[in-house]
Design goal:
Blueprint (H helix, E strand, L loop, with lengths): L1 H7 L7 H19 L3 H9 L9 H13 L1 H8 L12 H16 L5 H15 L4 H16 L1 H9 L1
Helix pairs in contact: 2-3, 2-4, 2-6, 4-6, 5-6, 6-7, 6-8, 7-8, 8-9
Length: 156
Amino acid sequence: MIEKTLLANPSKNRTPRHRAREFALQGLYQWLLNNEDAATVVNNIRAAHGFDKADVDHFSVLLYGAIKDSAALRASLAPLIDRTIAELSPIEHGILLIGAFELKNNLEIPYRVVINEAVELAKSFGGIDGHKYVNGVLDKLAGRLRESEVGADKRR
């Protein structure tokens, strides 16, 4: 289902890292719906059209990392959302897992970039106002996980 959406929304401005996030989202969607192991998901995604244009290393880190750390990531998101994790759409759920993983583990990526990339994924693949929800949740999470970076940014 999401694969068709990915193919139906071609963008000439997508960077390899953005494409990696799109494919990681596709993999998380598959994992959330089918409860397949990470290796099976990765093999399916690697065969997808356009995967060769993605940052393969970043894709692997995101997908394996978000799956492996999903319990801890969900625990960090739970106090920031207005419903249970189970009530999130699989798209929002996957985007929030990717965003939370990057905020927690990819400190070299500025928190604003992480949030912006997640918002762009939500605009492309989520519901009508899903991007606003993703933005709000990840902004709160950034304040917790990257307090000094967010504080320094606000002081500017």
